[in-house]
Amino acid sequence: MNAALEQIKQEILSGAEEIKSSKEAYEFRKKFLDGKTGKIGLLMREMKNIPPEQRADYGKGVNELKEWAMGIISELDTKMKAKELQERYEAEKIDISLPPQGSEQGNLHPITLIRNQLIDIFAGMGFEIYEGTEIETDYYNFTALNTPQDHPARDMQDTFYLSPEFLLRTQTSAGQIHVMENKKPPIKILSPGKVFRSDDDATHSPMFTQMEGLVVDKGITLCDLQGMLDVFVKKIYGENTKTRLRPSYFPFTEPSVEVDCSCFECGGKGCKLCKGTGWIEILGAGVVNNKVLENCGIDPNEYSGFAFGIGIERTAMLKYGINNIKLLFESDLRVLKQLND
Ligand code: PHE
Fold first, then answer.
1. Could you say which DSSP state residue 280 is in?
2. What is the C-alpha to C-alpha distance for residues 42 and 5, in angstroms, rounded to an integer?
3. Separation CA 311–CA 328 (nearest Å)
4. Which segments of 19-159 does DSSP mark as H helices, in order?
5. What is the SS3 assignment for 254?
6. CB–CB of 325/204 below 8 Å?
7. 71 C-alpha to center of ligand 1: Å?
8. Is the CB of 257 under 6 A from ligand 1?
9. Could you write out the three-class secondary structure of 305-341?
10. How far apart are the CA of 124 and the centre of ligand 1, in A?
11. What are the structural domain ranges in the chain?
């Protein structure tokens, strides 16, 4: 019998040397120590065939062999697992000396930048934002703004009509009416948004962005408009920038003005940007026409106001020195990356 135990012992000793992984160690353990099928387990089951007087010795011998085998195989298992962990560490090693790949940083579109900048400036003067809708009725876009059906000023803007009644707004001025219909003075709103006109060349696009401003209160005059614009141009184009008003015409303002600022490129001496004049046109504005106030149920004897409309693309083109509006819409990252401050 001792020979059988001795043989298993030898088998374990020589087998252990062949083990290369924790998985093999696991199989090895099963081969010898599994309660039902393992070689040592089977020796235990032999007990009933052993003559009773030898059983005690036999049992002791098998138990000793089992204890010994468990020790050997556990040690083997621990060794294999440690070796495998080490191999994994080696394989997954990170080379922290490699230079980083660097992440691409996006930036806001120039139109968004200018829009935000204008909103910041006017919000600082107490203006609230009102965003109207891009689809408007003929009434809000024209008629209520003192531009009835057969008014010649309708020709100033080539309109995309959706139906005889609905159209794509040609100006954010439509928002003025909504605000005045719904709010009692004092009113101080800023209305940024997309507008649409059938117009397409180097400086015009069928879709562009405007920023409307409207102030209505007691005793508002053209001087208030100019004072506010002075602050505005200094903030956006620099402390030394001046403004001047030129007479103009819009049906919804009376008087109407075209606002110029002194050329921020040459300081007013005359250059390519200002076409030698020293001045650059930046927006249209005026005192709100009494008829418009009346259309909105505001008494012109009690209240007056001013309005202005700024073209954002135009402002961006002037600021960044772009001569084609399409550059702002083509989403060419090589261009957009340069226009980000
Ligand atoms: N709505 C005018 C335009 O689009 C601009 C404007 C706004 C003029 C407000 C006067 C007052 O040309």
1. E
2. 12
3. 13
4. 22-33, 39-45, 52-91, 110-124, 138-141
5. strand
6. yes
7. 93
8. no
9. EEEEEEEHHHHHHHHHCCCCHHHHCCCCHHHHCCCCC
10. 22
11. 2-92, 110-336
pTM: 0.70
Look up residue 194 and give its two tokens: 């997309």
Residue 270 zone, left/alpha/beta (φ > 0; ψ -120 to 50; rest): left
- Ligand 1 site, residue 286, Cβ cutoff 6 A: yes
Beta bridge partners of residue 101, listed in sequence order: none
> 142 CB under 6 A from ligand 1?
no
The three-state secondary structure class of 115 is helix
Phi (first) and psi of residue 308, to 5 degrees: -145, 155
Angle, CA 176 vertex, CA 173 and CA 179 arms, to 5°: 150
Cβ of residue 308 lying under 6 Å from some atom of ligand 1: yes
pLDDT per position as a tens digit, 263-305: 988 888 999 888 899 999 999 999 999 999 999 999 999 999 9
Cα of 252 from ligand 1 centre, angstroms: 8
With a 6 Å cutoff on the Cβ, whether 250 touches ligand 1 is yes
**Short-list 47, 233, 202, 45, CA closest to 122:** 233
Q: How far apart are CA 126 and CA 6, in angstroms?
A: 98
CA 327 – CA 156 distance, rounded (Å): 25
Maximum C-alpha span of the chain: 129
Residue 284 CA neighbour count, 13 Å, CB half: 16
Class at the top of the CATH hierarchy for domain 110-336: alpha beta
For 128-169, the pLDDT digits (tens) are 999 999 999 999 999 999 998 888 777 777 899 999 999 999
Whole-number Å distance, alpha carbon 285 to ligand 1 midpoint, is: 6
DSSP run (H or E) holding 17: helix 2-18
- What H or E segment, with its residue span, contains residue 168? strand 166-168
What pairing do the DSSP bridges indicate for beta strands 128-129 and 187-196?
A: parallel
Give the residue, out of 141, 171, 203, with the most ligand 1 atoms within 8 A of its beta carbon, to mutate for a pocket test. 171
